Structures are given as C-alpha cells and as structure tokens.
Please model this.
Amino acid sequence: MSPLSRSLLVVIFLATSWGAAAREPGSKAPPAYNPPPESSRFIAAPGVEAAQKHCLACHSADYVSTQPPHMPAAFWQNEVAKMRNAYGAHLSDDDAKAVTDYLVTTYTEPSAGRR
Ligand code: HEC
Model:
C-alpha cells in the first residue's frame, strides 16, 4: 500500500469515526414522557357524549369549564362556530347543534349545577 493510499485510508477512517461520534447523542432513545392522567371532565348531563367525542381532541374540558358562568347561549354558539371555522374542529351540523345544546343547558342555565 502506497503512503498516499495509507494516509487516505487514515483520513477516511477518522472522518467516519468522528462522524459516528458526533451522531451518538442524537441516536439515543428520547427520554420517557408520561403525562399525568387527564383530570378535567365535562359535567355529566344529557348530551355530554357529543362534547366528549368532539371537543377533547385539541384541548381539555377545562377550556369550557373555566369560562365565566352563565354566559348567554349565543356565546356557546359562537364558541362552537369558532372551533369549526377557525380552528378546524370537524363536526357535522347535527353534532354542532348537539354540543351547543349541551353547553347551553349545562353551562349557561342558572339552575345548571357547575361541577
Ligand atoms: C381542532 C382543534 C379543536 C377542537 C376539536 C376544539 N377546539 Fe376549542 N380551541 C381550540 C384552540 C386552538 C383554542 C384556542 C387555544 C388558545 O388560545 O390557547 C380553543 C379554545 C377553546 C375555548 C376557550 C375560549 C376561546 O375561544 O379561545 C373554548 C371554550 C373551546 N375551545 C371550546 C371547544 C368546544 C366546545 C369544542 C367542541 C365543539 C372544541 N373547543 C373543540 C381548538 C379546538
């Protein structure tokens, strides 16, 4: 083997082993991530299934339960419309009505129990 090809081999060896060393940290498995169990829930009332099915994909039920109490029905209609039109929630018109009815009845009516 000529001195030139030997030094080429050395360069190739060093380049590949440095490359491997540089990649090593990234090749480790990411640390385990176990989020705590979900603790917020929609109030159990007729129609809650619709909210559970359509309103928990992107955020928790806290987004609903932390709204001011007794907001007018139009507030919940607008919220559901905003989720559909601005944020991309996929609900049919019937599902949107079911969720809105549930929210108005459960989170707006003065007689509705909160939590
Ligand atoms: C496709 C994702 C997605 C779905 C599904 C979704 N939301 Fe949201 N929601 C959002 C985003 C994004 C925000 C704004 C978050 C922020 O500002 O930090 C939000 C915020 C809210 C808020 C807080 C007030 C506001 O307007 O910002 C309420 C109340 C709410 N959502 C209710 C609902 C209800 C009810 C449903 C079921 C019909 C629903 N969301 C489904 C994405 C979604």
Observations:
- The chain has a mean pLDDT of 84.
- Residues 54-55, 57-59, 63-64, 67, 79-80, 82-83, 87-89, 91, 99, 103 surround heme C (CB under 6 Å).
